[in-house]
Amino acid sequence: MTARLTHTHCHGAGLVVALVVLVIMSLGALALVRAVATGLLVAGNFSFRQAAVFASEAGSETAIDWLSARAATTDLFSDQAAAGYYASLPSGLSLSGRTDTDTRAYIDWDDDQCAGRSTTTCLSASPAMPIDAAGNRVRYVIHRLCRTNGRPDAAANSCLLFRSAQGASSNRGQLSYGASKRFDASDTVYFRITVYVRGPRNTTAFVQTLVHY
Fold first, then answer.
1. Bridge partner residues of 159 (DSSP)
2. pLDDT tens-digit profile of 55-103?
3. In this structure, are residues 139 and 107 in contact, taking their beta carbons and an 8 Å threshold?
């Protein structure tokens, strides 16, 4: 009688252990599935981000072509808001749309009047380029890095200038289009191109390029 009870008790303990092991294995499998899913999600988001950055090159090249066609004219002395060009850099500008204590100007990237902000300056971006095969929408703005509009050499103006006796760029992140002026030591004004890309899954990328002529 005693041996039979002991035998039954051992079978009950084994069942409890098996259930505990089963629960632990199930939790481990669930954690593994979630880890794999998270890894796939991160990889997917990274690929969307990379695609958006690559798409920004088209915006930069379009902006550079626009500037190059007007580099030798006085068209760049004044704003051309419909093209997303501004002859001066406004104070307190937020390019990303984030707000801080000094923000006084925004870019209307999404054609929503700068998210309905009515007490600040709302600047137009360039017309949107055709959406690419990856679903990215590209726009840009160009700022001449000057304090005011008008001639860059005017007494009342102040501009960020580049000067090179060889007309070549020595700084990373900037492009020189003044190779034809190789022996011209005149100062040239910097232009800052900001490209905004909006892609699938609310992917957003901002890429900036400095150019001078």
1. 146
2. 999 999 999 999 999 998 999 999 999 999 999 999 899 998 888 778 8
3. no
**Number of domains present in the structure of the chain:** 1
d(CA 69, CA 45): 37
pLDDT of residue 167: 44
**How many Cβ atoms from other residues are within 10 Å of residue 23's Cβ?**
10
Query: What's this model's pTM, rounded to 2 decimal places?
Result: 0.72
pLDDT digits (tens, 9 = 90+) for 156-178: 999 999 876 554 445 556 666 55
Q: From start to end of the chain, where are the E strands?
A: 85-86, 93-94, 105-108, 121-124, 137-144, 161-162, 174-176, 188-189, 191-198, 204-212
Q: Contacts by 152-161 with C-beta closer than 8 Å and gap 24+? A: 152/77, 152/187, 152/189, 153/187, 159/189, 159/190, 160/189, 160/190, 161/187, 161/188, 161/189, 161/190
Domain hosting 169: range is 3-212
Token digits of residue 123: 């600047």
